[in-house]
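Q: Hi! First time doing this. I have a protein sequence and I read that you can turn it into a structure. Is that right? Here it is:
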Amino acid sequence: MSDRGSEPPVSTFDRGVEAVSEVIRIGISPFAAPSGQRRTRRATDVVVLVPAALVLAYLVAVYPPSSLELALIRAVEALPAWLEPAWAFLEYLVGVWAVAIVLAALVARRFRVAAQALLSTSVALAIGFFCARIALGSWPDAVDTLLSRERSPAFPDVMLGASVGVVGVVTPHLVRPLRTVGRWLVVLGVIGTAVSATSTPGGAVAALLVGLVAASIVNLVLGTSAGRPGLADVRAGLAQLGVRADGLVEEDEQVAGVLRLRATSADGGPLLVKVYGRDAADNQLIQRLWRGTWYRGRGPEIGSSRLHAAEREAFVTLLVRQGGLPTRDVVTAGEVLGGDALLVLAGDATPLSRLADAQLDEDLLRRCWEALGHLAELQVAHQQIDPETVALVGGEIGFLELGGAAVAPVPHQLEVDRAQLLAATAAAVGIERAVRAAVAALGPAAVGGLLPYLQDAALSARLRRALKGAGVDVDDLREHAATVVDVEAPELVSLRRVSWRSAIQIGLLGLASYTILSAASGVDWQEVRESVSEASWVWIAVALVVAQTPRVAQAVSTLGSVPAQLAFGPVYGMQLATGYMNVAMPANLARLAVNIRFFQRQGLSPTVAVASGAIDSFASTVIQAVLLGLLLVFSGASLELELPLPSGDPRLLLWILAGIVVGSIAVLVTIPRLRNAIRERFSQWWPDVKSTLASLRGAGKLAQLVLGSLGAEILFALALGLFARGFGYDLSLAELLLINISVSLLGTLVPVPGNIGVAEFGLTVGLTGAGMSPEAALGAVFLYRIATFYLPPIWGFVALRWLQRNRYL
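A: Yes, that's right. Below is the predicted 3D structure, encoded as structure tokens:
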């Protein structure tokens, strides 16, 4: 590398000249990364490939054009003739761009990129010809297709598909401005092709999908450039910020979207350079969404800019250092001409994981807990403590990697820090010494209070890897700590599928089965079979897909019920697992049981876990009741059910209920021991319950809770309506909501596992009352229940095992 470290200091003017020369030298390259950089397979290609292939298959299956597309074609034909040259220009522009970027690859000696473009062209042509054969019934003439657009097939436009395929494989290697230009040219090219005389709107869309499928296949097979800036790019950015760094070298461990490098400053001190790269493929939106969905504290925040992420870490680092806690010095942070955001930190630091055994003494462990207490006094919660972020800085214990820290944290976040430090020290020195040091620093009561947060799911991925490498099991750590401080280890909610209530549930299930069979005895089952066989299976297929989406909305509702920030992916997996548990218990009870255990595994205290699970289930029931009332009062929906009511005086039931209430109050008044036990338990629980309820006022929690529950009800009703549409009946959303919510509330009051019998009977009666024939209603309900209840346990079981295997349950 360079030997600038031995050169005399240079002036600010000289630094500016050096920065400009570096930017000019590297800024003319159209490619994002140096040649020969390692290749990766991106999740974006999978995300594009699967839906593009499905939509393409659908377009081929429904060809020729539908009445809607024919109407669109007639509207296009009515456009002024003088616009035709403009459409032709847009049509050919994509091909010109494809040729230009391939030539750029050849000039830059990126022969592998050019070879990928050629392969993508071949794959796109093969897919396009095959789709034309299926849709048109004959193979198109290859020569006419390649040489004359006027004689090429209208569906799909094969040449457009080939051009899109080329753009799709070369674009990931380009710098972001050129990537943006290429995407806009593809959009304009599709529009020009759709309105031209040589193709149709469907043919243009199919061509786009052909190109996307071909490009995704090639990218997944051969990989794409990692897109990280080269050392020359980083050196130019540092020069622009006035920082001289010698010996730039990448660190072994990298974080998505951030390039980490080690260097030496002009005075010989160590530097850490973090580059939030404009062109890093891992910094694409889909990668940030994926990591934000499944991981806690990994990579930049979703929706935050690169400069914001760099400046935020610089701010927290300065705040901590000015507060007297050791950490690295902030040299500078800013955005450079290339669009990258750079953060430069100075100072030597030795992480806990790299200290010798002789250094890991009791005094060092004590200082670790003192440093954490100091961090809490500064009103900062680290949130990503592990053996790599606890370090000796200048001979004192401090913390590194403060980009994910929380300023002005809530108590839950401070407890998470304590649990993470206990786990980190256990990975470094073993369970017994780590627990002994924690008890000496915090006291038995405080250690007992952090035990609920000692859950795998509440720890960062790097900390879990460190524990696994050290052979430390988090459950063993929690149980040992509970034994040392002489408290009972926090018990997780049992997920037993069989309990003492099984006999009652079986009896209720038998009663429900008898009821639905009696109601169905007058149905002509031959007509039911005919109705199902004559149903529109396109609508049935759409309904089957829509019926799986309410779990997404329920996951959003769950995120709103807890005071902590949880990852969406595991929460969605929990909702799928609830579908499996619904087979054993009523829907809301199953959801409550799984939620509580999941929350405890996320590090929430038992009281908060119970309160959060109860809030989620209660909110769902309240939303159902409010919607039902609004529909009955303000909508024109009504149901003529004509159900038989129980005989006898209804006032007798009211007297019985009043007697139960009065008797319960009398028991509490006359038995002080019971009253005191309830009061004591309430006084212990109320602070946690109060903080859980208070969390609904911040970070959009209440909106998540309400909108998630509302969205789930709408999606369930929409799925039911799509199944009814498959049988030829159009029902309004108000009627569908009224039917679905009424049956759901009835199922809550009748504790039958999975509402089996209750749901089938109630939905059939509701759809019949809304105007469907009994046979069609029964067929629609049968398919709806298969989609929403009998099929979800399949992937619910897979989700349950995944959650258990990864210690989320």
